Amino acid sequence: MTRPITAGVDGTEESLAALEWAAREAVRRNLALRVVQAWRFQPYEAIDAGDRETQAGWVKNAVADAARAVEARHSGLEVITDVLEGDTVDTLVGAGAEAEMLVLGSRGHGPVVGFLLGSVGQQVIAEARGPVVLVRAGDQPSAEAAGREIVVGQQGDPQDSADTLRFAFETASARGAGVRVVRAWTLPPVFAYSPGSMQILDQAGGLEPFEKKALAAALRPWRERFPDVPVVEHVEMGSAGQVLLSVAARAQLMVVGRRAHRTAVGARIGSVAHGVLHHAECPVAVVPHS
């Protein structure tokens, strides 16, 4: 069964920008758009906020209005709406598990501050089993103009970034865009050297040629699967987050992978994803590794 693209909404400007982004992507991929809002009944003693049924009606009407508006802008788009009562994070994670991707809004105030995720956004990204795309208020279709790339980070062995590369190439193919694949590398600490690793590096001609060969190997199956997608292989010395952000100005979408790290204070999404989410001006897709 074909899964929809799901947008989480809450009536804010940023969530409506995410809804519009999701609608454009659904049209490109010929998929349905599911509009989901999580809510909980909240009685207020100070004011008459209505009973459970009344509040549910208000939320359903707001979601229906947003869906009708986006449906009117995209002829032929199938739009499904769901108002789900429950914890926001659990509801969105569950909705994302049934979707090709989950699209959420995120507040941002320019390139320095970037995304303000909040606890809900960060928890959803950390818990999601599929791609989560973050879109800021003010996002415009013009940002997807020809010449702007899908920028994706690649690291490790071919299988380590397979899900991330798949998402980037599928998105680029649907948009008729090119892909810039970024592999950052740093000098290993002295204690990491060993006779075996040094022999491998010597055979490759040094560190940078070794990294270029590793990137080429990771890209080989995706070049074959998507022969019409132009590819730029970008290998640069530096931290992954800094190198990705250095090319962010040319991106219409940035794609990064993540492995959630469990700590005593909850799940963390990793420094690269965290840095890109907070400083990139374009939408950012975070793809969990299998």
Automatic annotation (TrEMBL):
Domain of life the protein comes from: Bacteria
Gene3D superfamilies, sorted: HUPs (3.40.50.620)
UspA domain mapped to chain residues: 1-136, 149-288
Pfam families: Usp
Record-linked InterPro entries: Rossmann-like_a/b/a_fold, Universal_stress_UspA, UspA
Family: Belongs to the universal stress protein A family.
Protein name: Universal stress protein
